[in-house]
UniProtKB/TrEMBL annotation, chains A, B:
<dbReference type="InterPro" id="IPR050109">
    <property type="entry name" value="HTH-type_TetR-like_transc_reg"/>
</dbReference>
<dbReference type="Pfam" id="PF13977">
    <property type="entry name" value="TetR_C_6"/>
</dbReference>
<keyword id="KW-0238">DNA-binding</keyword>
<keyword id="KW-0804">Transcription</keyword>
<dbReference type="InterPro" id="IPR001647">
    <property type="entry name" value="HTH_TetR"/>
</dbReference>
<keyword id="KW-0678">Repressor</keyword>
<feature type="DNA-binding region" description="H-T-H motif">
    <location>
        <begin position="31"/>
        <end position="50"/>
    </location>
</feature>
<dbReference type="InterPro" id="IPR036271">
    <property type="entry name" value="Tet_transcr_reg_TetR-rel_C_sf"/>
</dbReference>
<keyword id="KW-0805">Transcription regulation</keyword>
<dbReference type="GO" id="GO:0003700">
    <property type="term" value="F:DNA-binding transcription factor activity"/>
</dbReference>
<dbReference type="InterPro" id="IPR039538">
    <property type="entry name" value="BetI_C"/>
</dbReference>
<dbReference type="Pfam" id="PF00440">
    <property type="entry name" value="TetR_N"/>
</dbReference>
<protein>
    <submittedName>
        <fullName>AcrR family transcriptional regulator</fullName>
    </submittedName>
</protein>
<dbReference type="InterPro" id="IPR009057">
    <property type="entry name" value="Homeodomain-like_sf"/>
</dbReference>
<feature type="domain" description="HTH tetR-type">
    <location>
        <begin position="8"/>
        <end position="68"/>
    </location>
</feature>
<dbReference type="GO" id="GO:0000976">
    <property type="term" value="F:transcription cis-regulatory region binding"/>
</dbReference>
Amino acid sequence: MPARVDHDARRREIAEALWRVLARDGFGGLSLRTVAAEMGATTGLVTHYFGSRAELIDHALELLHARTDASLGEADVPLGRASLRTRLLAVLPTTGEAAELSRIWVGFWGLAIVDAGLSAREAARYERWRAWLRPHVAAGWPEADVETSVDLLTSSTHGLVVQALFDPDRFGPERLEALVDAQLARLGG
Amino acid sequence: MPARVDHDARRREIAEALWRVLARDGFGGLSLRTVAAEMGATTGLVTHYFGSRAELIDHALELLHARTDASLGEADVPLGRASLRTRLLAVLPTTGEAAELSRIWVGFWGLAIVDAGLSAREAARYERWRAWLRPHVAAGWPEADVETSVDLLTSSTHGLVVQALFDPDRFGPERLEALVDAQLARLGG
């Protein structure tokens, strides 16, 4: 009798291959065929687990969200400046792993921006991010306009991610940290 | 005798179709076949002018840069706060046309982020953008740290573009203008 296939292990193996394709070639390079090639398997094996490119993209997003949430650390931390600073720094590409995650995010934006359903999911994710920031801003900067501060912190952090990915020589870890501190220092203004 | 083909007119026609494909489907949807279909022409007609998808992408970038530069207005304006504010507002998706241009840029990032050559070109473009901002910051905010201010203005403006594209209801033209003014008000801090 043939050995019983461990379906969970196989799905994990596909997920790892999918992630490597995303990190190297972005969403533009993601297909049933390229994931299969990355595993050295047949396309048929991948379609046994993911019936279409759309299902593969759904799974890629699940992985992207799970890995991003893990990279952000605990959500339930003391309110205020220190926790907020830690969270913003966690978003920036200060390590190779964080840069890989950010590259996949920027690639996802390119996909989502022309897809109404994915755009709506991304808008909802932004709102959850702002909901996390609000009480930290209110606690850390009692004099600040919370919504304005939350929008500017979100903008400057994400815009900095993009600049840093394209120009890592200018935006090394120390420079990124200094820029986050400069933006935080301007929060009460 | 057949009518002489106007090659310049034909190239312009292809460029217009290419732009419509980009605006609707992003770089992921751009190919010789999709541009031909958009024109109601054969793929052979398009390949007569653009030999490969790479050539089509090169031309898309030329158009993207030319239309972006045109949207930014005159480069040679009086130094200082008013000119800087005008330039930042021109980047934001406050009109349908500006939103279309921004959507194509965000899609381009997704392509460039996994392509070393395109990443280097984007880094160089960012440096030209900073070179434009520097004397305006120095003239308008003599007490400010120019490099920090230039990096934060660039980050917050581009990050705001992304948020606004995904959530135009939250980020209408008035809100975008207020956020640019809030960031500018914090520049000297």
